[in-house]
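Session log. Operator J.P. requested a structure for one protein chain; no other inputs attached. Running the standard single-chain path with C-alpha coordinate output.
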Amino acid sequence: FELVNSGDRSDYDREVPTIIVEAPGYAPEKKVVDIAPKPDPLEFKLSRGRNIKCHVVDSRGNPLTGGWTVIQPFADNRDYDVWLDDTDSKGDFIIPNVAERDVKLTVGKSGFLTIRDYIIGPAENEVTVQMMRTLTIQGTVTDAVTGKLIPNFGIAAIYSRRSSNERPIVFSDGKYELSFDETSALTWHLQASAVGYEQVESEEFNIEEGSKVINFKLPRSSDFEEKSAGQTFQVTRGPSVRIITGVVKDEKDQPVKNAVISTRPWLAEDTLTNDEGKFRIRSTINSGSVGTRSSSLQETTYILARQKERNLSAAIQLDEKTDNYEITLSPGIIFSCKVVDVNGVGIPSADISLGFWISDGGYVSRDPTSIDSQGNFEIKAIPSGY
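Structure written below.
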Protein backbone atom coordinates (compact mmCIF):
# COMPACT_ATOMS: atom_id res chain seq x y z
CA PHE A 1 0.00 0.00 0.00
CA GLU A 2 1.00 3.64 -0.30
CA LEU A 3 -0.10 6.65 1.73
CA VAL A 4 0.57 10.20 0.56
CA ASN A 5 0.48 13.19 2.89
CA SER A 6 0.64 16.58 1.22
CA GLY A 7 0.71 18.49 4.51
CA ASP A 8 3.63 20.46 5.84
CA ARG A 9 6.20 18.59 7.94
CA SER A 10 5.59 21.10 10.72
CA ASP A 11 2.36 19.15 11.36
CA TYR A 12 4.53 16.62 13.18
CA ASP A 13 6.48 19.01 15.41
CA ARG A 14 4.55 17.89 18.51
CA GLU A 15 3.47 14.34 17.64
CA VAL A 16 5.24 11.34 16.15
CA PRO A 17 3.12 9.98 13.26
CA THR A 18 2.28 6.28 13.24
CA ILE A 19 0.50 3.92 10.87
CA ILE A 20 -1.87 1.27 12.24
CA VAL A 21 -2.81 -1.74 10.11
CA GLU A 22 -5.80 -3.88 10.99
CA ALA A 23 -7.44 -6.82 9.22
CA PRO A 24 -10.33 -9.13 10.20
CA GLY A 25 -9.09 -12.09 12.23
CA TYR A 26 -5.72 -10.51 13.09
CA ALA A 27 -4.33 -8.40 15.90
CA PRO A 28 -3.63 -4.81 14.76
CA GLU A 29 -0.06 -3.58 14.50
CA LYS A 30 1.46 -0.11 14.35
CA LYS A 31 4.77 1.39 13.30
CA VAL A 32 6.31 4.82 13.67
CA VAL A 33 6.72 6.73 10.41
CA ASP A 34 10.13 8.10 9.53
CA ILE A 35 9.56 11.71 8.41
CA ALA A 36 11.95 11.85 5.49
CA PRO A 37 11.64 12.75 1.79
CA LYS A 38 11.94 9.07 0.84
CA PRO A 39 11.27 6.92 3.89
CA ASP A 40 12.12 3.23 3.87
CA PRO A 41 9.17 0.89 3.19
CA LEU A 42 7.35 -0.38 6.28
CA GLU A 43 6.67 -4.08 6.72
CA PHE A 44 3.80 -5.27 8.90
CA LYS A 45 3.61 -8.89 10.07
CA LEU A 46 0.16 -9.58 11.50
CA SER A 47 -0.51 -12.39 13.99
CA ARG A 48 -3.80 -14.04 14.92
CA GLY A 49 -3.33 -13.13 18.57
CA ARG A 50 -5.35 -14.67 21.41
CA ASN A 51 -8.96 -14.46 22.58
CA ILE A 52 -9.63 -13.14 26.08
CA LYS A 53 -12.81 -14.18 27.89
CA CYS A 54 -14.22 -11.43 30.10
CA HIS A 55 -16.86 -11.60 32.84
CA VAL A 56 -18.66 -8.47 34.06
CA VAL A 57 -20.33 -8.66 37.48
CA ASP A 58 -21.74 -6.34 40.13
CA SER A 59 -20.35 -5.94 43.66
CA ARG A 60 -22.15 -9.14 44.73
CA GLY A 61 -20.81 -11.20 41.84
CA ASN A 62 -24.04 -11.21 39.84
CA PRO A 63 -23.57 -11.11 36.02
CA LEU A 64 -24.41 -7.84 34.27
CA THR A 65 -26.16 -8.10 30.90
CA GLY A 66 -26.06 -5.46 28.15
CA GLY A 67 -22.90 -3.65 29.22
CA TRP A 68 -21.05 -1.85 26.40
CA THR A 69 -17.38 -2.68 25.90
CA VAL A 70 -14.43 -0.98 24.20
CA ILE A 71 -10.73 -1.79 24.04
CA GLN A 72 -7.62 0.18 23.21
CA PRO A 73 -5.41 -2.39 21.44
CA PHE A 74 -2.40 -0.12 22.10
CA ALA A 75 -2.36 1.01 25.72
CA ASP A 76 -0.32 4.10 24.84
CA ASN A 77 -2.67 5.26 22.04
CA ARG A 78 -5.98 6.71 23.26
CA ASP A 79 -6.96 7.79 19.74
CA TYR A 80 -7.42 4.22 18.50
CA ASP A 81 -10.13 2.06 20.03
CA VAL A 82 -12.38 -0.81 18.99
CA TRP A 83 -16.01 -1.35 20.02
CA LEU A 84 -16.86 -4.94 20.97
CA ASP A 85 -20.09 -6.88 21.59
CA ASP A 86 -22.25 -6.07 24.62
CA THR A 87 -22.11 -8.47 27.55
CA ASP A 88 -24.44 -11.47 27.11
CA SER A 89 -26.99 -12.97 29.54
CA LYS A 90 -24.13 -14.39 31.63
CA GLY A 91 -22.26 -11.07 31.71
CA ASP A 92 -19.63 -12.43 29.30
CA PHE A 93 -17.97 -11.15 26.14
CA ILE A 94 -14.87 -12.00 24.12
CA ILE A 95 -11.98 -9.74 23.17
CA PRO A 96 -10.77 -11.35 19.91
CA ASN A 97 -7.32 -11.30 18.32
CA VAL A 98 -5.32 -9.67 21.11
CA ALA A 99 -1.56 -9.33 20.64
CA GLU A 100 0.94 -10.30 23.34
CA ARG A 101 0.92 -6.87 24.99
CA ASP A 102 -1.13 -4.79 27.43
CA VAL A 103 -4.56 -3.61 26.27
CA LYS A 104 -6.92 -1.18 27.99
CA LEU A 105 -10.56 -2.10 28.53
CA THR A 106 -13.58 0.15 29.12
CA VAL A 107 -16.92 -1.24 30.32
CA GLY A 108 -20.08 0.78 30.89
CA LYS A 109 -23.69 0.08 31.82
CA SER A 110 -26.58 2.30 32.82
CA GLY A 111 -26.86 2.48 36.62
CA PHE A 112 -23.19 1.60 37.19
CA LEU A 113 -19.91 3.50 37.33
CA THR A 114 -18.01 3.14 34.06
CA ILE A 115 -14.74 1.21 34.32
CA ARG A 116 -12.00 2.94 32.32
CA ASP A 117 -8.38 2.05 31.54
CA TYR A 118 -8.65 -1.46 33.00
CA ILE A 119 -5.32 -2.98 31.95
CA ILE A 120 -5.23 -6.59 30.76
CA GLY A 121 -1.71 -7.98 30.71
CA PRO A 122 -0.10 -10.10 27.97
CA ALA A 123 -0.33 -13.29 30.07
CA GLU A 124 -4.04 -12.96 30.90
CA ASN A 125 -6.58 -15.00 28.94
CA GLU A 126 -9.59 -14.55 31.26
CA VAL A 127 -10.57 -11.62 33.49
CA THR A 128 -13.46 -10.61 35.75
CA VAL A 129 -14.47 -6.95 35.94
CA GLN A 130 -16.51 -5.80 38.94
CA MET A 131 -18.73 -2.72 38.57
CA MET A 132 -20.10 -0.49 41.33
CA ARG A 133 -23.55 1.04 41.37
CA THR A 134 -23.92 4.65 40.26
CA LEU A 135 -23.13 6.99 43.15
CA THR A 136 -25.97 9.34 44.07
CA ILE A 137 -25.45 12.34 46.34
CA GLN A 138 -28.52 14.18 47.53
CA GLY A 139 -29.37 16.72 50.17
CA THR A 140 -30.78 20.12 51.05
CA VAL A 141 -29.44 23.68 50.99
CA THR A 142 -30.79 25.94 53.73
CA ASP A 143 -30.32 29.41 55.22
CA ALA A 144 -28.02 29.04 58.23
CA VAL A 145 -29.96 31.68 60.15
CA THR A 146 -33.57 30.62 59.56
CA GLY A 147 -33.09 26.99 58.59
CA LYS A 148 -35.44 27.51 55.63
CA LEU A 149 -34.78 25.95 52.23
CA ILE A 150 -33.06 28.31 49.76
CA PRO A 151 -35.24 28.35 46.60
CA ASN A 152 -32.45 28.55 44.00
CA PHE A 153 -28.82 27.47 44.27
CA GLY A 154 -25.95 25.79 42.45
CA ILE A 155 -23.93 22.67 43.25
CA ALA A 156 -20.49 22.14 41.70
CA ALA A 157 -18.70 18.78 41.85
CA ILE A 158 -14.92 19.21 42.11
CA TYR A 159 -12.06 16.76 41.82
CA SER A 160 -10.43 16.87 45.23
CA ARG A 161 -7.02 18.54 45.47
CA ARG A 162 -7.79 20.30 42.22
CA SER A 163 -8.12 24.07 42.01
CA SER A 164 -11.09 24.58 39.72
CA ASN A 165 -13.88 27.03 39.01
CA GLU A 166 -16.39 24.43 37.86
CA ARG A 167 -19.72 25.80 36.67
CA PRO A 168 -22.48 24.65 39.02
CA ILE A 169 -25.51 22.60 38.14
CA VAL A 170 -28.58 24.60 39.14
CA PHE A 171 -31.36 23.31 41.40
CA SER A 172 -34.50 24.75 42.93
CA ASP A 173 -36.86 24.16 45.88
CA GLY A 174 -33.97 23.68 48.29
CA LYS A 175 -33.13 20.10 47.27
CA TYR A 176 -30.58 18.54 44.92
CA GLU A 177 -29.48 15.16 43.59
CA LEU A 178 -26.27 14.39 41.66
CA SER A 179 -25.35 11.13 39.93
CA PHE A 180 -21.75 10.06 39.34
CA ASP A 181 -21.93 7.48 36.54
CA GLU A 182 -18.65 7.95 34.70
CA THR A 183 -15.52 9.28 36.32
CA SER A 184 -11.84 8.44 36.62
CA ALA A 185 -11.51 10.34 39.92
CA LEU A 186 -12.33 8.58 43.19
CA THR A 187 -12.23 11.53 45.59
CA TRP A 188 -14.54 14.53 45.21
CA HIS A 189 -16.06 17.40 47.14
CA LEU A 190 -19.09 19.61 46.51
CA GLN A 191 -19.48 23.38 46.55
CA ALA A 192 -22.86 24.98 47.25
CA SER A 193 -23.53 28.61 46.33
CA ALA A 194 -26.55 30.91 46.13
CA VAL A 195 -27.24 34.60 45.54
CA GLY A 196 -26.79 36.50 48.83
CA TYR A 197 -24.90 33.69 50.61
CA GLU A 198 -21.32 32.63 51.25
CA GLN A 199 -20.09 29.59 49.32
CA VAL A 200 -19.78 26.41 51.39
CA GLU A 201 -17.63 23.40 50.57
CA SER A 202 -18.33 19.84 51.72
CA GLU A 203 -15.82 17.40 53.12
CA GLU A 204 -14.13 15.06 50.67
CA PHE A 205 -15.91 11.83 49.83
CA ASN A 206 -14.91 8.70 47.96
CA ILE A 207 -17.25 7.28 45.31
CA GLU A 208 -16.47 3.77 46.60
CA GLU A 209 -18.26 4.69 49.84
CA GLY A 210 -21.63 4.53 48.07
CA SER A 211 -24.56 6.93 47.90
CA LYS A 212 -24.98 9.44 50.73
CA VAL A 213 -26.72 12.59 51.93
CA ILE A 214 -24.84 15.90 52.18
CA ASN A 215 -26.77 18.88 53.53
CA PHE A 216 -25.54 22.48 53.32
CA LYS A 217 -26.26 25.42 55.65
CA LEU A 218 -25.19 28.62 53.90
CA PRO A 219 -24.21 31.67 55.97
CA ARG A 220 -25.48 35.00 54.74
CA SER A 221 -23.00 37.26 52.92
CA SER A 222 -22.12 40.75 54.14
CA ASP A 223 -24.31 42.30 51.41
CA PHE A 224 -27.28 40.00 52.08
CA GLU A 225 -30.66 41.40 51.04
CA GLU A 226 -33.90 39.64 51.82
CA LYS A 227 -35.49 40.52 48.47
CA SER A 228 -32.67 39.30 46.25
CA ALA A 229 -31.45 36.33 48.31
CA GLY A 230 -31.90 32.99 46.56
CA GLN A 231 -32.67 34.46 43.16
CA THR A 232 -32.53 32.23 40.09
CA PHE A 233 -29.14 31.08 38.79
CA GLN A 234 -28.41 30.77 35.08
CA VAL A 235 -29.20 27.14 34.26
CA THR A 236 -26.17 24.92 33.54
CA ARG A 237 -26.42 21.23 32.83
CA GLY A 238 -23.77 18.58 33.07
CA PRO A 239 -22.92 16.16 30.26
CA SER A 240 -23.59 12.42 29.91
CA VAL A 241 -23.15 9.59 27.44
CA ARG A 242 -25.85 8.61 24.93
CA ILE A 243 -25.85 5.33 22.99
CA ILE A 244 -27.63 5.43 19.62
CA THR A 245 -28.37 2.16 17.80
CA GLY A 246 -30.23 1.15 14.70
CA VAL A 247 -30.54 -1.01 11.62
CA VAL A 248 -30.06 0.05 7.99
CA LYS A 249 -32.08 -1.59 5.20
CA ASP A 250 -32.58 -1.09 1.47
CA GLU A 251 -35.90 -0.51 -0.28
CA LYS A 252 -36.46 -4.28 -0.42
CA ASP A 253 -36.27 -4.42 3.38
CA GLN A 254 -32.92 -6.24 3.25
CA PRO A 255 -30.12 -5.32 5.70
CA VAL A 256 -27.31 -3.19 4.28
CA LYS A 257 -23.81 -3.94 5.51
CA ASN A 258 -20.75 -1.65 5.36
CA ALA A 259 -22.85 1.53 5.32
CA VAL A 260 -21.00 4.50 6.83
CA ILE A 261 -22.95 6.01 9.75
CA SER A 262 -22.06 9.57 10.73
CA THR A 263 -23.65 12.56 12.47
CA ARG A 264 -23.86 16.18 11.36
CA PRO A 265 -22.98 18.25 13.32
CA TRP A 266 -20.36 15.86 14.70
CA LEU A 267 -21.53 14.05 17.82
CA ALA A 268 -19.69 10.74 17.54
CA GLU A 269 -17.02 8.89 15.57
CA ASP A 270 -18.16 7.38 12.25
CA THR A 271 -18.97 3.67 12.26
CA LEU A 272 -19.95 0.90 9.81
CA THR A 273 -23.02 -1.32 9.80
CA ASN A 274 -22.36 -5.03 10.37
CA ASP A 275 -23.58 -7.99 8.30
CA GLU A 276 -27.05 -7.60 9.81
CA GLY A 277 -27.17 -3.90 8.92
CA LYS A 278 -26.91 -2.89 12.58
CA PHE A 279 -24.90 0.02 13.96
CA ARG A 280 -24.07 1.60 17.29
CA ILE A 281 -22.65 5.06 18.00
CA ARG A 282 -21.72 6.66 21.29
CA SER A 283 -22.04 10.40 21.79
CA THR A 284 -21.84 12.94 24.62
CA ILE A 285 -24.82 15.23 25.02
CA ASN A 286 -26.17 17.60 27.61
CA SER A 287 -27.92 16.08 30.63
CA GLY A 288 -27.43 15.94 34.39
CA SER A 289 -24.67 13.49 35.39
CA VAL A 290 -21.13 14.17 36.55
CA GLY A 291 -17.78 13.11 35.14
CA THR A 292 -18.32 12.84 31.37
CA ARG A 293 -17.08 14.92 28.47
CA SER A 294 -19.20 17.76 27.17
CA SER A 295 -20.45 18.29 23.64
CA SER A 296 -23.14 20.69 22.52
CA LEU A 297 -26.18 19.39 20.66
CA GLN A 298 -27.08 21.80 17.87
CA GLU A 299 -30.63 22.87 17.02
CA THR A 300 -30.90 20.34 14.18
CA THR A 301 -28.79 17.17 14.05
CA TYR A 302 -28.81 14.49 11.36
CA ILE A 303 -27.72 10.86 11.10
CA LEU A 304 -26.23 10.17 7.68
CA ALA A 305 -26.13 6.62 6.28
CA ARG A 306 -24.18 6.04 3.04
CA GLN A 307 -23.37 2.77 1.25
CA LYS A 308 -21.05 4.10 -1.44
CA GLU A 309 -20.51 0.84 -3.37
CA ARG A 310 -24.27 0.48 -3.95
CA ASN A 311 -24.94 4.24 -4.17
CA LEU A 312 -27.52 4.12 -1.38
CA SER A 313 -28.03 6.87 1.17
CA ALA A 314 -30.33 8.55 3.68
CA ALA A 315 -30.33 11.51 6.04
CA ILE A 316 -32.68 11.49 9.01
CA GLN A 317 -33.14 14.05 11.75
CA LEU A 318 -31.95 12.91 15.17
CA ASP A 319 -34.67 12.94 17.81
CA GLU A 320 -33.44 13.60 21.36
CA LYS A 321 -36.09 11.20 22.70
CA THR A 322 -35.28 8.29 20.36
CA ASP A 323 -32.17 6.12 20.70
CA ASN A 324 -32.99 3.35 18.21
CA TYR A 325 -33.62 3.90 14.51
CA GLU A 326 -34.64 1.92 11.43
CA ILE A 327 -33.17 3.65 8.39
CA THR A 328 -34.23 2.84 4.82
CA LEU A 329 -31.71 3.75 2.12
CA SER A 330 -32.71 4.92 -1.34
CA PRO A 331 -30.64 5.65 -4.47
CA GLY A 332 -28.30 8.55 -3.81
CA ILE A 333 -27.05 11.43 -5.91
CA ILE A 334 -23.75 10.96 -7.80
CA PHE A 335 -21.48 13.96 -8.28
CA SER A 336 -19.31 13.56 -11.42
CA CYS A 337 -16.52 16.12 -11.20
CA LYS A 338 -13.06 17.02 -12.40
CA VAL A 339 -10.17 18.72 -10.62
CA VAL A 340 -7.34 20.31 -12.63
CA ASP A 341 -4.54 22.82 -12.15
CA VAL A 342 -4.35 26.23 -13.83
CA ASN A 343 -3.03 24.55 -17.00
CA GLY A 344 -5.96 22.12 -17.19
CA VAL A 345 -3.88 19.13 -16.08
CA GLY A 346 -5.64 16.64 -13.79
CA ILE A 347 -4.61 16.42 -10.12
CA PRO A 348 -5.01 12.75 -9.09
CA SER A 349 -3.51 13.42 -5.62
CA ALA A 350 -6.17 15.96 -4.59
CA ASP A 351 -8.17 15.50 -1.38
CA ILE A 352 -11.94 15.81 -1.70
CA SER A 353 -14.23 17.01 1.11
CA LEU A 354 -18.01 16.73 1.13
CA GLY A 355 -19.98 19.29 3.15
CA PHE A 356 -23.44 18.48 4.48
CA TRP A 357 -25.16 21.86 4.76
CA ILE A 358 -27.89 22.55 7.29
CA SER A 359 -29.18 25.87 8.60
CA ASP A 360 -26.44 28.46 8.07
CA GLY A 361 -23.38 26.23 8.31
CA GLY A 362 -21.59 23.40 6.56
CA TYR A 363 -19.96 20.41 8.23
CA VAL A 364 -17.05 19.26 6.12
CA SER A 365 -15.34 15.87 6.20
CA ARG A 366 -12.84 14.24 3.90
CA ASP A 367 -14.45 11.85 1.42
CA PRO A 368 -11.92 9.22 0.20
CA THR A 369 -12.32 9.21 -3.56
CA SER A 370 -10.38 7.73 -6.47
CA ILE A 371 -9.22 10.39 -8.95
CA ASP A 372 -7.86 9.29 -12.34
CA SER A 373 -4.87 10.79 -14.17
CA GLN A 374 -7.11 13.33 -15.94
CA GLY A 375 -8.58 14.52 -12.63
CA ASN A 376 -12.00 12.88 -13.04
CA PHE A 377 -13.76 11.55 -9.97
CA GLU A 378 -17.18 10.64 -8.60
CA ILE A 379 -18.73 11.04 -5.17
CA LYS A 380 -21.52 8.53 -4.64
CA ALA A 381 -24.32 8.01 -2.14
CA ILE A 382 -25.16 11.64 -1.47
CA PRO A 383 -28.55 11.94 0.30
CA SER A 384 -31.16 13.30 -2.11
CA GLY A 385 -32.76 16.61 -1.26
CA TYR A 386 -29.92 18.08 0.79
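Operator note: The CA atoms of residues 247 and 280 lie 9 Å apart.
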